[in-house]
Amino acid sequence: MLVERDEQIAKLTAWVTGAARTHTAAHGAGYGAARRAAPDDPSRPGRIAVISGPVASGKTALLHRVLEPTADSGIRLLSAVTSASERHIPFGVVEELLRDTREAAGPLALHGPAGAEELVPAQTLMAFHARLAGLAAHGPVLIAVDDVQYADPQSLQCLLYALGRARATAGGLALVVTCGPDAGATAPHVLDELLRQVEGLHLRLGPLTTHGVEALLVQKAGLAARTGDASTGPSHTARLASSLHMATGGNPLLVHSLLDDRVHRQRAADPVDGSFPAGEQFLQNALICVHRTGAEGLRVAQGIALLGSSTARPLLARLVETDERTVGQVVTALGDAGILQGERFRHGAVRTAVRESLADDALVLLRRRAAGLLYEAGAAPMAVASHLLGNGPAVPDEEWVPGVLSAAAHTALASQRVEFAVRCLRLAEECSPDERERLRLRASMAKFIWRVNPSAWAQELQPLNAALREGTLPVTDSLRLVGDLLWNGWIDDASIAIENALDGMPQPPDPGLTRQLGDVRVMLASTYPTLLERLDRALGPAAAPSPAESPEDCAMTGIRVLQGVLSTGTGSGHRERAAADEVHTEIAERILAGTRLTEDSHVTIRACLLTLLYSERLGEAILWTDRLLDEASEHDAPGWTAVMQAMRAHMALRRGEPDLARRLAAQSMEQLTPHGWGVGIGMPLSALIEARTALGDHEAAAALVDNHPVPEQMLLTRYGLHYLYARGGHRLATGRHHAALTDFMTCGRLMREWDMDREGLAPWRVGMAEASLALGNRDQAEHFAREQLAREAGPRVRGMAMRVLAAARPATDRPVLLERAVTLLQEEGDSHELARALTDLGTAYEQLGDTAQGRSCTRRAGRIAEVRGARELTHGSRGGQPVLSVPQRPAPAALPSPVRSRPSAAAPLTDAERRVAALAAHGYTNREIGAKLFITVSTVEQHLTRVYRKINITRRQDLPVSWDIDVAHTA
User: Fold this and answer.
1) Residue 893's pLDDT is what?
2) Residue 552 phi/psi, 5° resolution?
């Protein structure tokens, strides 16, 4: 199937026909008349036709198409097909041409003695011409040689001799050859002389145009003619043709191959983008094209596949050990063949196939040479490193290798190619002859591994830990390792690291080392206080937090503000704590706003998010955590994602969203194995226990408490406080009141001892009050509830304490206390605690005889619990009272509501008022409503005032929760 070859077919056919007419003219009108024919007359004898073009451009197909009819035209056809492997066989082509003529005249003597200056003996040349002349006497003779560039010089000399004497030959003698590229080879002089015959037909075949490919598509597959599918119309065919031409450069063989691969895969429909995935036939034929460009074609193509398209030709020539001229010839030939476009592979699969054509040992040697050449040429470290990484054990034993790999790792990290960076550092460590340098590289590598594969992190730290114990790890590196050791629960090893640093402190003290020790002290105080107790005297007094410090001043600023928030919870008045919180949270938000998530910053960012969480700035904490979770997801960093999901789960608990907290905590724990979590497992595990307990799934919570492995050292860290509080809540909800009291008491004792007595971390006093109440000790319950209220914590914790205080007081005191608890919890937005307070308030009203008010509160609590997925609203009994479960929601027709209007009463509200009211009813604060709806707090207040007036209520807690639930959740 030849496309865009009509003109060449016509010219070659006319030329062949002229050869047949020559015999008639010679015998009819005489040879002189034939000689007097016009110079461009195709019938003139002794003519040569040359068909040239790129590899697989259809030269052979064109030759066969024209020569097929010659059997019936009286022309004697002598043909030969050459190959590169036979070019050194003397007279190989001549023997193939004459293989069918031996019966008439016997074998031809081809190998007689030649003179010193002779390529072919004279008698051989004359004998070959005589044989052809004898054949021509009976009719025209046409010699066809395919791929003449591979013909042996002796045969070429014979053909040139015979062609030069064709005019004296009775009958007719003509030669037609195809000639393709032979890059890198030096053509014999006789071939140039033969191809440069003046009297001849020269046809040059080029690649198919886009229109030619489109015509081939229509002919081959009948896309537009045979199917009624509109998607295969002209415009679709044109798009496919453009895609095919882009992938093949118009090479007919490659176009056919892609189409055949497509048929073999039995694709039901064409890809929407018109792409053509490479199949086996296409890749095989592409490699054939590469081989046929010349002796050096494959090697040069392999060099391009290895180095890429931007490599300078001198460097490429050195890599493949050839000259620039040959490289240029190969690149041109590959471009003409549709393999390359410029110096870039048109199809990525072809580049891969060419690269994979190298044997393993050859590939290693070529990569090694490429790395050295690129380094000498001053190439970018990542370009050099990509070849070093492919060398396996054969990495060059050169001094520059570790430095280049280290530089490439840092460049890769800047573009978030973490796995590449880790591979570079690992290889640099293996290549470095310096022990200290190897340890430094191992430390960097371990830090990056935690981001992408935290489960393998502890194993990577073992060599560093061994060096620490042996005393060979430098002091500064030992101190940098402290946080990693503590995360894995290796407290004794961390103690050794600090003691080694203190023992090695020079006199006078080194300022940098002193600062490092100060940073370690802050880290211990904020997270690992038990080790601080052991080393407190050696480390010296704590440096006062520096709130004015900017992120640029110290990488530990985030941990300093976290410690500042934790420590202000102990022994500080309300005003002093509020002022300090304002300063610390402002610094934390400033750091979050100006810091990208990286290996060096993720600890600081984590500390800033905890600062917001523990200072009860829940709205800001959620906003920043959600943004950073998106960023971590873009970086494909499971370690970062898992830690932030755990913190976000605690935020969801404080928002009264136990089901969301459950999902986040479960996802967090799935991201990392328990081994990868280290002592940090306390954060997601505690959130999951709390969420399961709030949802009433006590069996699942019990399985987590009883069966989930946790490091023993976890309870010696801040993460253990979260765990103790969560376990106490679970035990309280399942009737193990004494065990719950012990957990809350231990939690509170440790928080005070560690200078972390902060309700935002764990409101242990509320837990103590609830457990005491469950045990029937009302006085102790009231004591802890009032102690908590006296600390002036945030609205959420005050509301929780007020609810427990109400349960400890006489029935007549409860409604007032519970109304205040509802107001506080609604202001903070904790729906779960709000529902619990409303349940208690409903019970209190009913005990005092106000059944209507009691049922109203209970219904509202049930609606909130239904939305949030909670199944139980109390941790235990209230001084002998039975556990209050979520009431079943009665039918709407049986719901008298003397206080609140029905949902239909919202009809007079505007859309804006309805959205504000729905969010307020679901516990969002005015500030959060404004942020969600992009309006000011003042506007929120004005909308609520109008809503109260329109539906005839006076309090926020009287807003019907059933209003526009979808609006509340999608606003």
Assistant:
1) 34
2) -70, -25
